[in-house]
């Protein structure tokens, strides 16, 4: 389980169960305490955008991704996406180095080989 923080505060977590090693990206269902509507309001309050009912924000330097031990998982981009009408939330993380991808997401690499 990976934890997303914003300015040091816990936003929620994801297993980041899907990945594409060819572009060093991972994604997954995102879980947070308040649900998709609450998260959508929070995203908009910190500068996120809304497009046809989908609320999202680009992950910038204020966001950090932590592994289960609290270590920072380096990345350079991504999005937090909330779809309140469908009660769905997703986290997409991109710009992961080869080394970090191999360390944390080796199961995605193995799945590509099968």
Automatic annotation (TrEMBL):
Q: Which domain of life is it from?
A: Bacteria
Task: From the Swiss-Prot or TrEMBL record, give the protein name.
Answer: Uncharacterized protein
**Which species does this protein come from?**
endosymbiont of Galathealinum brachiosum
